[in-house]
Structure to design on (164 residues):
């Protein structure tokens, strides 16, 4: 591993991070787990995260705050829809707070159930962090150049990454 690599496009980065909301509630963290490993510049991370980390070297720590437009976007009230209860399997237990995945146009579309009645299920297709201002504390653990195979596939292979 070259010591002069910094976080830039086509670099495989491994980081430890903690993400907090405006009220200091931790919404995600790698603490006590393997570091998060991703291929920089390939839309695997929210835009602001990569922008704030560009140029960081191994061992560097950065803390930054992202407004919704640089994180998961603003909430879209049109993303909250009523789905007829009969579109779900009859035996399926549906509860507020459950996360399910629908298929829309051949693509997975995750949603949270925010209300359930006998006739309808209210589904929120907004990301659960949409509209939130997020603060990240990030430490760079490892950086390496991506392999040709990783670049052609657009994701990391091997430890901490994708396995075929």
């Amino acid at each position: 591993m070259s010591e002069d690599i910094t976080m830039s496009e086509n670099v495989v980065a491994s980081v430890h991070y903690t993400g907090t909301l405006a009220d200091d509630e931790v919404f995600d963290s790698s603490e006590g787990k393997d570091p998060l490993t991703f291929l920089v510049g390939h839309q695997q991370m929210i835009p602001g995260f990569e922008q704030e980390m560009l140029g960081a070297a191994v061992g560097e720590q950065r803390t930054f705050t992202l407004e919704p437009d640089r994180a998961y976007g603003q909430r879209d009230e049109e993303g909250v829809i009523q789905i007829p209860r009969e579109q779900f399997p009859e035996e399926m237990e549906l509860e507020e707070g459950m996360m399910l995945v629908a298929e829309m146009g051949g693509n997975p579309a995750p949603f949270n159930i925010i209300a359930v009645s006998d006739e309808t299920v209210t589904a929120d297709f907004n990301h659960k962090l949409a509209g939130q201002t997020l603060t990240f504390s990030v430490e760079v653990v490892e950086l390496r150049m991506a392999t040709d195979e990783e670049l052609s596939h657009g994701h990391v292979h091997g430890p901490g990454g994708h396995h075929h």
About this structure: The mean pLDDT is 92.
